[in-house]
Write a structure and sequence with these properties.
184 residues; single chain; signal; Intein N-terminal splicing region; 5 helices; alpha+beta; globular
Length: 184
């Protein structure tokens, strides 16, 4: 009888520890992406680096001979021999991309959130910002498999990294027929 009682108490304590606290549940729910329409097209066009770009490119790159991929840029020039896929964005596509980046965010900025990242980094995709001299002046490097994004500088206006943000960006790349780095 005592052993049954001990087993019951043990099972109850294990299940109690397995439950998420209400704060954890709230943070999880608050971390879901929600479209807020917070910034107009004009607002988003004014954000750096969008405000200086004469062209914005999406690229994919993957060198199977290296352990960690490096963005194929040297002296602000793209090494096209290392690029697998490339797409120059139209004005409408830039608006769609900036809408994903800046208008999808946490449900409430004031409440706890969960930031989901893996402990790895092997980027295969990037967003390149090109100036009027055809030089790359900023970039956003993306590793979809590790759920991480790196910025070329701290000047780039960042966004809420809500739970589905990288998946929304991945879908944007896929909609432009990218395969490298975006297929799971």
């Amino acid at each position: 009888m005592k052993s049954k009682l001990v087993i019951i108490i043990l099972c109850l304590s294990i299940s109690a520890f397995a439950q998420k606290s209400s704060e954890e549940k709230y943070a999880e729910r608050n971390s879901i992406c929600k479209h807020k329409n917070k910034y107009s097209i004009q607002d988003r066009k004014s954000f750096y680096p969008f405000n200086k770009a004469s062209n914005i490119l999406l690229i994919s790159f993957d060198d199977p001979e290296v352990l960690i991929n490096e963005l194929p840029i040297s002296n602000q020039i793209l090494d096209s021999t290392k690029v697998k896929e490339i797409k120059s964005l139209t004005h409408d596509e830039i608006n769609n991309l900036s809408d994903i980046l800046y208008n999808f965010g946490f449900i409430n900025d004031k409440f706890p959130k969960i930031i989901d990242e893996a402990n790895c980094y092997n980027p295969r995709n990037a967003i390149l910002f090109i100036d009027e001299k055809s030089k790359i002046y900023e970039y956003i490097e993306i590793c979809f498999s590790c759920n991480k994004i790196e910025f070329s500088s701290k000047e780039i206006k960042t966004w809420d990294n809500c739970t589905e943000k990288n998946d929304l960006i991945r879908k944007f790349f896929k909609s432009k027929e990218f395969k490298v780095g975006v297929d799971k």
